[in-house]
Amino acid sequence: MANDNKKLVEDITSMDVDFAQWYTDVVKKAELCDYSSVKGCMIMEPAGFAIWDAVREGLDRRFKETGVENCAMPLFIPDSLLQKEKDHVEGFAPEVAWVTRGGSEKLQEKLAVRPTSETLFCDYYAKKVHSYRDLPKLLNQWCSVVRWEKTTRPFLRSREFWWQEGHTAHATAEESRERTIQMLNVYADFCEEDLAIPVIRGQKTEKERFAGAEATFTIEALMHDGQALQSGTSHDFGDGFARAFNIQYTDKDNKLQYVHQTSWGLSTRIIGAIIMVHGDNDGLKLPPHIAPVQVMICPIQQQKAGVLDKAAELLGRLKKAGLRVRLDDREKTPGFKFADCEMRGIPLRVEIGPRDIENNQAVLVRRDTREKTVVSLDELEKTAADMLEDIQKNMFEMAKEHLEKHTFIAKTIDEMEEILDDKTGFVKAMWCGDRACEDAVKEKTGATSRCIPFKQECICDTCINCGKPAQKMVYWGRAY
Amino acid sequence: MANDNKKLVEDITSMDVDFAQWYTDVVKKAELCDYSSVKGCMIMEPAGFAIWDAVREGLDRRFKETGVENCAMPLFIPDSLLQKEKDHVEGFAPEVAWVTRGGSEKLQEKLAVRPTSETLFCDYYAKKVHSYRDLPKLLNQWCSVVRWEKTTRPFLRSREFWWQEGHTAHATAEESRERTIQMLNVYADFCEEDLAIPVIRGQKTEKERFAGAEATFTIEALMHDGQALQSGTSHDFGDGFARAFNIQYTDKDNKLQYVHQTSWGLSTRIIGAIIMVHGDNDGLKLPPHIAPVQVMICPIQQQKAGVLDKAAELLGRLKKAGLRVRLDDREKTPGFKFADCEMRGIPLRVEIGPRDIENNQAVLVRRDTREKTVVSLDELEKTAADMLEDIQKNMFEMAKEHLEKHTFIAKTIDEMEEILDDKTGFVKAMWCGDRACEDAVKEKTGATSRCIPFKQECICDTCINCGKPAQKMVYWGRAY
Questions:
Q1: What is the ipTM of this complex?
Q2: Of residues B49, B69, B160, nearest to A71 (C-beta)
Q3: Which of A236, A431, B74, B86 could form a disulfide with A41 if both were Cys (CB 3.0 to 4.6 A apart)?
């Protein structure tokens, strides 16, 4: 790399030296988000917001294919409404921000800034659902929610974060369970196909369940530092909320029944996952499917006659071919532009200079492998498109390899301790199902139960902690 | 119309009897929005949200074409930040909702739930802008804002509403003024091309200016009842905010300069405009360009063999042709479906029954003119697409005719009073520029100054109130 861009890369701490600092440096240097004057709240800058927009597009399309429609609920929840479901309010009350004044008047009832909107959707469904013909209700909203966290980190934990929250109501328990799993699979497919992030699909233990849910399902991803990140959750509420909010319908036999409900959410945390699964010491690495800019054209010796014209021509051609492409015509050295482009994670770079033009060629440089390929300009569109697909696949394969290399097996708690002493990653181990053993694992190893995976394996017959007969194989790990 | 759907339409009050009730009925029957358990806050239901989503898509594309990027600012504004620009805080403080508690702690500084985000963008620009190379900054966000209004109406005035707010920073006063007008024209073009709503473009008087702005520009539309609706505004702040927030940059001559700023917003109010400009006694009437469903296929005698199959085939064909189309295969009478489809404002209806299938034809019914056309199925896609374009044009023409018919001229305040006694609409009249005369017009006629239009005309030489030499021609009207 040229000297003039040394500064650019120097600013990023090596991930081997300090992973947390590396993360913060990448977020800041790539201008994904910035701290705001509101403690614990972040500003999503254009580069970060564009990633979130791409996530939204990819997920929203998939939601709609399953019949889900978007809507918008109020930002506020009256105190009395939040109180209606006991477990739910207990889970959220400690971290709620409260509006107590409107204009010059003190409010008669304080309003919660929504930490999540189950109660609002329930209130709405209680009004709208009367007959079996009104079911299912399949609604979603894209919004921000507020949780008054004590410690915060960009994207991973902040007092305000953006997400989507889907809320559905069904006639039967079977249907709500089916929808819960269906939406978890939508998340998993999206993560694997578009974000190139392999995930473990499974169920949360009772301890890790969402406040008010009968069952919580999760997708768990492994970051580059070997820590887990819960990347999306889907909850089956059974008829618990329906009983609390009195959401009833008349079935075909004219009998009154409670609905069964689900909710499912994926948040801006996922941007943290993209950074920590794919990034390297030169910065961000964005999977082509969701990269806001897939191709950056970097002219060489752009002051020379014809270079910028040719670059602009290529820009037009690649745009026309349906690629998201930009031209970096700033008055900077090529070396600076290359490093900048790498730091911002743009999957593919096209270098074009006077000699290339002479030879009717361009140099394509992949962000994932750094591989350089000289291509004839006649083949530019096809080669670039193919290469992007190959980068997408390769990024998934690399992440999968990392996941597999950092997934271990333990039969006893001593084994688990030993593994986590000098390695990081998931540990697969058997569990009897007792909360006490789950707590013991956490206390001794720092690892929490991430999920009971759908794909079960039998590692041994006994619980990792108590030695009693095992019920389930569990993924354990230290987590964000 | 058949008897079985009488109930459906009966529920909508005639607009001639009670326009306000007609409006509420349409909003409710078409399920655009619902009241929530939070006083003054609305729920945007799927049909209403889908319109807002279409508005967002149409505007966002236009914004991006002018170089604007999206971002997301925090929901909260610290009290001290809101206080920084004197005029601005005076304008908004009376209607701010305040967060005073977070979790179990009382906040040291209360936080405003954003009523608008000038102060947050200024705070951000103060950090990010250093050199002339950092300019212009062209940012926008799609979000909801909160203003503690006393009286509320669906879409037109509610305590929480959704909008976009663009905020830009420029090197010079010329550039910020240019951007202000540019964005106003984006709004106007969007309203006219996509919403089929003709608008008057102009400048607000000093009295009607945005809190903290040097100049406010507006687009004003005329509703069916002759009242005006401010449909989008664009503000030039000059360097007022820059001085309050100390946003300075080093120019090419290495001198420190203040930036010049703009902001511009369009909100869910526009859905109120769509309803009140185009709707009729049968319900909503959506312009094809932004109708979430452009074509509804209504099968006739759908229980007969082959009808639903054929309807599904047409659905597939029209989808493939790029139209937004749905099939109403509910077990309801055709009459009910027709009325339902009209009430929801769907621009075009395709009727297909056994006899149509036999004759290889379908019946197309336009929502705007009720005109029925029998078309060969071989021509279906082309005819439907052409008809939608024609409906779009015709709806604009009809709205324009209404606007022109309800725009009057007055030379004296008596004339204006007389006109507004039994007519409703805009009154064009001359004005000397004095606030006192503006106030007098409002007191005597109930009409406020809507704007000083860019397209000036000379109606006479003297001010409508004081008779002194006139400066400008002004559009006056009663407004929402």
A1: 0.95
A2: B49
A3: B74
